[in-house]
Specification:
mainly alpha; Farnesyl Diphosphate Synthase; two-stranded antiparallel ribbon; 15 helices; 2 strands
Length: about 300
């Protein structure tokens, strides 16, 4: 019963969020049409929207305004989409498939894909700047800073730089964790915190608990991703399976083995749920999303 209820919640939020994204993205008939069409191609009709769902769930816990949550969820998803467009380019991971369809640089061209990423990142911060997200302007500035840090050299971009530099190298588990806390974890962590900060209802202590939850599920997400890259096929993943192994990239599977990697993901999941115990029933959506991140099945 609880799983069915979660499915309904997820489907409703995904459908609603897709409408919001369509409205927030520039229309494809607006100049420059090709760029705007490519932006919409890269963002719409794809992915499970895990990061926006985390923002919505954290915002619901904090009793935040839904209109505010729509904006922060969109900003996070635009950043995520930009990172995928750039990661797939020949100068990065050089992939041809994303979310079950040709990657942006394949469907359009490399120059357009580069501009798509740039434009999506700019649009994310434009949304955060032009909408009221917190009654306290200082808090809203902190929210903009939070996403900037999660996106930049101390977050996602920095993690990607470490990733590129690690090809063919034997990293230790702590070194691999450091890379993925930046590359994957930072934006997931930011999604949770941005949703929560759309309200001023939570104490700083509660926000620290949510931040730790975000850190745990962000790292668990990457560990599970490494396992799926090893075990799932391309059709299931919606992207090229086994690409990390082909490029000799260090992963939790190559360092620990499949079973130990799965054990690590379970331990991170348990730690995340322990953190949520401080909130009780109001955190049940975050609890369910943590379960999904571990199992990756809807």
């Amino acid at each position: 019963m609880a799983e069915a209820d979660f499915q309904v919640w997820v489907s409703a939020h995904q459908s609603h969020f897709e409408i919001q994204l369509r409205q927030l993205l520039p229309r494809s008939d607006t100049v420059p049409q090709r760029l705007h069409a490519a932006m919409r191609y890269s963002v719409l009709d794809g992915g499970k929207r895990v990061r926006p769902l985390l923002a919505f769930a954290a915002g619901e816990l904090a009793q935040a305004n839904e209109a505010r949550l729509n904006i922060v969820a969109a900003a996070v998803e635009l950043i995520h989409a930009y990172s995928l467009v750039h990661d797939d380019m020949p100068c990065m991971d050089d992939d041809v498939l994303r979310r079950g369809k040709p990657t942006c640089h394949v469907e359009y061209d490399e120059a357009t894909a580069l501009l798509v990423g740039d434009a999506l990142q700019s649009l994310a911060f434009q949304l955060l700047a032009e909408h009221t997200l917190n009654d306290n302007p200082v808090q809203q500035l902190q929210m903009i800073r939070l996403l900037a840090v999660a996106t930049g050299s101390r977050g996602m971009a920095g993690g990607q730089a470490i990733d590129l530099d690690s090809v063919g190298k034997n990293l230790s588990v702590p070194e691999l964790e450091l890379m993925h806390i930046h590359k994957t974890g930072a934006l997931i962590r930011a999604a949770v915190m941005l949703g929560a900060r759309c309200s001023s209802a939570l104490t700083e202590e509660s926000l620290k608990h949510l931040d730790h939850f975000g850190k745990c599920v962000g790292l668990a997400f990457q560990v599970v991703d490494d396992v799926l890259d090893n075990e799932a096929d391309t059709a299931t993943l919606g992207k090229t399976a086994g690409k990390d192994a082909q490029r000799d990239k260090p992963t939790y599977v190559t360092l620990l083995g499949v079973q130990a990697a799965k054990k690590m993901a379970s331990e991170l999941h348990a730690e995340a749920l322990d953190t949520l115990a401080n909130f009780g029933q109001p955190a049940h959506r975050l609890h369910q999303l943590a379960d999904f991140i571990l199992t990756r099945k809807f």
